[in-house]
Amino acid sequence: MSKNPQSDVGMYDAFAEEFLEHASDGAYNAYYDRPAVLSVLGSVRGLAVLDLGCGPGLYAESLVAQGARRVVGVDASAAMVRLAGERVRGPVEFRRHDLNTPMAWATDGEFDVAVMPLVLPHVDDRVGALREVARLLRPGGRLVVSTHHPMDDWRRLGGSYFTVERVREQWNKGWEVAYWRQPLDVMCDEFREGGFLIERIHEPRPSERMRERYPEVAARLSSCPAFVVFSLVTAFGRSRRDPDGG
Question: Residue limits of the Methyltransferase type domain (predicted)?
């Protein structure tokens, strides 16, 4: 597992308010990623849900509205956690937490399902983070992950598709963001090492709403996906604390 000592913990603090405005109605967040992840996740009525990289609470807000029994959102950004706490009401709580470190405040099997939307590329210790999530899910629990489509990263960044490296870019209004690019097989190997099996892979297509609201973006995403969504289940026959069975 790749680790980088210069991880930008809380890098979203600098533009949390702008991100909330952007993600609330932006093409990629509101009309592409969220609908795809929530569709793959399915019903959460009566479930305890872990929202990993909760940001300003847009996912948590939807999960509560859909009848989740309990939602716990975590994010490395203190500003995001503050915004989420101000915005979302109901059976929900938010915590500041760096996913590169263990979630010692939570117990084994505490959650039924988890979502990790567009977060994993920003985590340096991805296998460690996945193992922690597997520990916190009940046996057979599900984790729905959305992440950069590796083909889109390769299309944008060039070089070899098989490159594994930490990238720093400016997004939108000059936001400084760091993340990892890697090929699909490395991504899938990390899921396995983290204690999960792949149940489903979904490559989102633009919806009619997106075509109406953002026709140019929808046209581009109709031929080249930007994100990919995985439905993962905890691997059976393995210790929660040691997915490799050691």
Answer: 50-145
Any domain includes 131: yes
CB 201 within 8 A of CB 134: no
Indicate if the pLDDT at residue 82 is higher than 50: yes
pLDDT reported for residue 111? 98
Mean of the pLDDT values across residues 21-41? 93
Q: For residue 150, give the nearest of 189, 177, 111 by alpha carbon.
A: 189
Is 142 among the domain residues?
Answer: yes
- Domain membership of residue 2 (yes or no) is no
Q: What average pLDDT does the segment 175-192 reach?
A: 93
The answer, as to whether pTM is greater than 0.85, is yes
* CA-closest candidate to residue 229, choices 176, 191, 192: 191
66's tokens: 């859909």
CATH code of the domain containing 107: 3.40.50.150
- Domain assignment present for residue 69? The answer is yes
Q: Rounded to whole angstroms, how far apart are CA atoms 29 and 35?
A: 9
Which position has the token pair 């993600």? 23
Rounded-to-integer distance, Cα 74 and Cα 104, Å: 13
* Rounded-to-integer distance, Cα 62 and Cα 1, Å: 33
Number of domains in the chain: 1
What is the domain range of residue 203? Answer: 11-234
CA 71 from chain centre, in angstroms, equals: 15
